Amino acid sequence: MNFDLTDEQEMMRDTFARFLDENSSTVRVRKAIETGGFDPALWSGLAELGAFAMRVPEAAGGMELGLFDAALLMEEAGRTLVSGPLAEALVAARLLGQIGEQGELLERLIAGEAVVSIALRDMATQPVQWIAGGSVAEAVIARNGDAVVLVTVPEAARRGEDNLASTPLAEIDLGALEATTLGTGAEALAAFAAGIEEWKLYIAIGLSGMGRQALKLAAEYACERKAFGQFIGTFQGISHPLADLLCDIDGAKFLVWKAIRDIFDDAPTAGAAISIAFWWASDAAARAVAQGLHTFGGYGLTTEYDIHLYNLRAKAWPLVAGDPVLSLEEAGRRLYAGEAATLPASGDVPIDFDLGPEAAAIVQEINALFDANVTPEMREKFHYSWEGYVPEVHKLLAENKLLFPGLPEELSGRNIPAYAKIAALGAFEQNGYNTPAANVAGMVAMIIHKCGSEELKAEVLPRIINGDALCSLGYTEPGSGSDVFAAQTKATPEGNGWRIDGTKMFTSGANLADYVLMLTRTNPDVPKHKGLTMFIVPLKTEGVTIQPVYTFQDERTNITFYDGVHIPDSWRLGDVDGGVKTMSAALELEHGGGFSKVIKQMLHAAEDLCREIVADGKPLIEHTQAQVRLARTTANLWMSDMLTYRAQWASVEKKPNHAFGPMSKMFSSEKFLSDSRDLLDLTAPVSLSKRTGPAGFLNQCYRHAAGTTIYGGSSEVHRSMVAERGLNLPRTRA
Which ranges carry the Acyl-CoA oxidase/dehydrogenase middle domain (predicted)? Predict the structure, then answer.
């Protein structure tokens, strides 16, 4: 897996970024607006850096760089509100190099002396079209039935008009102008169609750059502006929407990356990935700039602040192609109706989401182990919660040293490379065996290994590692919820150990576990996060009472009571009053995952049900509205995957981590919840049933999803973490 650019790409991106910072500053953008939205000097400067030659074939005098290289330029162009039809010119230059005469016009375009744009619709059926850059373009490349033509636009026909974002937009009657045929037949039409797909990717990633910069401006303002005596960035009503949008905007870029990687890999989803990236970025950027402007309050409405420029341009860029929702319909047809897309050549792609051969080998090993040893009766018990704990499977994995693939070799028993560990956990889920019991046991084992006494390491740790003991977590209390540091369960010195008194809520698995990892208050006279200590408490100890609490999710959790429970000091973890430090590693483990695996299973169940349900005489999956909603869930699934991949990659490669784990968990849980509702609606009334099969599974997903935004840290807690670490906003939690 790799999210890094090559050294050459880093250098190229930095070069364009520095140039655009100076030559496409908001001062320059405002000046260009005064003269129609085009900056000739900027255009010439981009040409000097080779921008317009990037995608032109070498045989035609270009560099023939990849889609990814051009996308890096477009992201910076979006960030700096580039004044000119750059995406269109990149496509036009490539088309002239592919099917044109490769003559003077291409040379002038590459040199920045001419502007050439593209028409997004067939002029044979729609001769009058809105053309990006039409007020400054001396030529437009268009499809005209079975031919691709170059339409010459005389100066008299370049009539710009006031428009939403003050860009050089013009409505042109292409059919009334002189046209030269560049090519005819399947090859020429395929090149043009691929160019339109390429344009979608450029606009999408440009919008991601624009949205990211708008969020940056909003966050900086929220750190400067005070209201009611506080910086407004401390208000969750300000910070949390920005945190949500940071996930969406980062995801817009990653969806473009995925689409380019899919093209490189010749994946069957490549065409749909382009459509989804364009739709997603159009929507996410529009919402990001609007929320950015809202953060500025009334000042955002004034022309003195730059945020309004982002608001107008982010909304305007994609609309030259019409309603962006049409791209979601297109994605639905490409996913579910067999519509083919003609794809551009990708060139080299450094980004890779494959976990590698060692990961593939361990997945194969786990699949073989389950196939050979796990009976249908065992599989019947599988469930996403602790209710799915099957002792035989737990012990089987321990014996094969696969129970704790995420732990170091001295604990797990074998050296499993980092990406193979990720693949192993995914393989369990693909086999339907969700492992909260093993996940918690592994977390406790790591804490004991790092912070436990020799007695704990000798008596408790081997039992956990060998699969003979389970552990639960005693963090939450009836009055604290996600604010675990508000714990009031007391641990007071008594003899050679400690007496524990109090109550813990949602102690899932306590009815099955041998031990609980407990957070207690040992000092009530200091700030709440400084007076905490952690212990391992045997659940069979006198004074422990476990009372079941049942949820509508078909799972049991527990409330546990501790009345004069005595444990020796050797069962303490870390220093007295040092519980926050001891707990931090465990919390980080909890915040590192997402729910894309179950979203994928839910999507497949919905697809199956849509094939079974007949509506108006045909399967539901043949209806446009069903395809659109399934495509939207696909987009959310891919987004969840990409955010999780980034979090995993950053962790493995020791990269700076700006709350990537919380972003993954928060985004995927929220989309799991919203999509489970929507797919239940889509397949109603069949989805009401708990019958075995896709209907029952969708029903379960709706009930399951409700808890995912709460446990492991609520979405509100994660939004605060994203705001603080991803946008540098001030702390919003006490």
Answer: 473-550
